[in-house]
Design goal:
Blueprint: H1 5-27, H2 36-42, H3 49-57, H4 62-76, H5 78-90, E1 92-95, E2 98-101, H6 105-111, H7 115-150, H8 156-164, H9 168-181, H10 185-197, H11 210-215, H12 228-238, E3 249-252, E4 264-269, E5 273-277, H13 284-301, H14 309-312, H15 318-329, H16 334-341, H17 347-374, H18 383-395, H19 413-435, H20 443-453, H21 461-468, H22 478-482
Parallel strand pairs: 3-5
Antiparallel strand pairs: 1-2, 4-5
Length: 484
Amino acid sequence: MPFDLDAYRAQAEAFLSETDREYYLHYSGQRDDFRIEAVFDRHANLFSREAAEALREARAPAPLIEFAVEGHIGRETRAMSAELARREASLEIEWNGASVPYRSAAVLEANEPDPERRAQLDAARNDLTQAELNPLLRELLDSSHSLTRELGWPSLKAMCEELSGIDLAELGRQTEAFLEATDSRYPELVEPQLREQVGVGFDNLRRSDLPPFFRAPSLDAGFPEERLVPSLTETLAEMGIEVSRQPGVTIDTVPRPKKSPRAFCSPVRVPDEVYLVISPVGGREDYAALFHEAGHTEHYAHTDPGLPVENRYRGDNSVTEAYAFLFEHLTCDPAWLRHRLGIEEPEQIVEYGRASKLVFLRRYAAKLAYELDLNGGGEVDGLEHHYARHLSEALRVEWPAAQWLADVDPFFYSARYLRAWALETHLRRALTERFGETWCAEPEAGRFLRDLWSTGQGPSGGEGVLALAGGDSLDFSVLLSDLG
């Protein structure tokens, strides 16, 4: 009997919808338990080895095969993942005379004014990672590699390249060239901002100083909490998008004790039910997070409902991440800052935004180089030193080897982020050329974006979206001129 692709698509959509609903209810603070295992159990047949092989034999669209294969690996390793989550949630760090949750360490570092206490907390977190989490993470990595080989691929890298259509080796060459090209510019651009936000330069910089650098408390005055959500809805309104009239979009700002402090988007039913959840804590980071998730939200909410599930929910996530970065960039765009927040002299914010973006870009470029080795089918032992060297050289700060397994994006999602940054730059240039520096206040720009959003993730991914926008091939080097 031939494989029933339509039936598989229907069940896949049910699974994705149920999963995102569970995620929304739990992380918005409306439900204590996270019933994700029950969802997997109800749809276990989606992720059997037989289903993955049948999809390959039927020459199903690559995003569907990718969904099945990643789900198969996740299902087979779910016990390890559950134990890892349980252990991580239960870990506590003895710091500053008290016990603090392991998961709170990064937030505490970002808000701790004393550099020595920050460093102590960072060291304690690394020690716990090495002792308590890395043994499980290594077991999970080895199992994922073994399952990949059982499915017929020589390595996780080969599998991800085939199913995503992304030439990871070529992207690695482009990002390596980016690291070389920005090496001299990096301290010139970043060090003044480090001194402004943290009070130290590269000579005395420690990794524990980076969370407060990204927190950027000196910029808080320009980003008042009461303007957070209105600044978004007013921006969208000028582009012809009235959020209050979007029946499928909910901006959840309700305060709840157990609500996640981080903004997120849950596309429960694309395009008919999409949630943007925000729990403001104050400052520039709130704006960046809200606008990033708004890019996802509006993309999903305007996706053509007639597209197959793989193009509405899955596909090349470089696309939806590019829309998220496009909106996030507004929070350091001088025209938007003047127009929407009334900041007459936004230069400090603009320079900070450029510096923090360069830190992220170099960090992810170094991560990709390391992950290509980690998942390339070769020997894994000893790569913790390789990881530390890559990150240390890229960011010019001593980087802890203890994070070599915790700091890995599943299935090369780091590549999607890197491609998204490049695609966002192409898209922003196209919008500026067509509609001017204040494109975000033009209804025609809104129509232009809605046309792009309607294509979902697109069968040809980021390159296809770029072609629709009138651009050339997706090229990571476009970021060089964008950084000045």
